[in-house]
Amino acid sequence: MQVAWTSHTGEPVVAGVGDAEDQNTPLQVGDNLYVCTTFGTVISFDIDSGKENWRYVAGRGNSTYQRCRGTAYFDATTAGKVADAPGSVPGAAIDASVSPQRLFFPTGDGRLIALDAHTGKPAANFGDNGVVDLKVGMGLVKPGYYQQSSTPLVAGNLVIVGGRVIDNFETNEPPGVVRAYDAVSGALVWAWDPGNPQVTREPLSPEGYTRGTPNVWVAMSYDAELGLIFFAGSQDFYLRAFNSHTGEEVWKSRLPVGSQSGPITYRSQKTGKQYVVIFAGGAPHSPARGDSVIAYTLP
Known about the structure:
Layout: E1 27-29, E2 32-36, E3 41-46, E4 52-57, E5 72-75, E6 101-106, E7 111-116, E8 131-133, E9 146-147, E10 153-155, E11 158-161, E12 164-165, E13 178-182, E14 188-192, E15 221-223, E16 228-232, E17 238-243, E18 249-254, E19 264-267, E20 274-280, E21 292-298
Antiparallel strand pairs: 1-2, 2-3, 3-4, 5-6, 6-7, 7-8, 9-12, 10-11, 11-13, 13-14, 15-16, 16-17, 17-18, 19-20, 20-21
């Protein structure tokens, strides 16, 4: 084995400057390799030569916690329809007229951005010229107190995000809501508010979603066949399954300790059974760290 190529982002992490770490997992689609930097830049490289195809600089991170763990890919020409966006024609085909292949990535200041996967330009029909402000509906958000740092989850025609809240600094911290947006328009399709099960989309209070609730900052997983989304919270102690169409909780299971990992789901070729697996342990605020790898059999 030998090095094929080396490229540089031009944005090295400087020790002692903010809480910054390179934690990105590159994403390969076709002939392109996509990375996002700690400071909010997305770069497309040629997979064979390492030549830079394009870069998009989002900027405006925060000074307390700088991460971008990955980008998510959506293809409007092949995606399955999971849910209709509010105001759309029920059952209508997914609109593939503008930037049908796009990347989603989060920023340190609480934005969700959609980029054309070929050009790196913002997807014009997503949110406000490619940007959805995730702080909408969140009430007061102090700088650095809320962001989405992990890879968004694409489930059919939805892009789903949780969010990292700066835990245990004070009471009345920002909400830990999980939200699903239409991957084409950026319209909010459903929301799960851990503090108010009556919420299905927009917050019911003028102050926003319930504050001080557990947050889902780790990656989520999706089983298209079952129509389920799986996630856990580091201080929530539960693995949960949600209906991807509606955002309704289907089941939850208590974990022995908090989890800081994203669950995965797979089907056994030997038995044909479907499983969801999660590692429980390592959460710094859990009473015990733990070392459990737990597998659940799905119906």
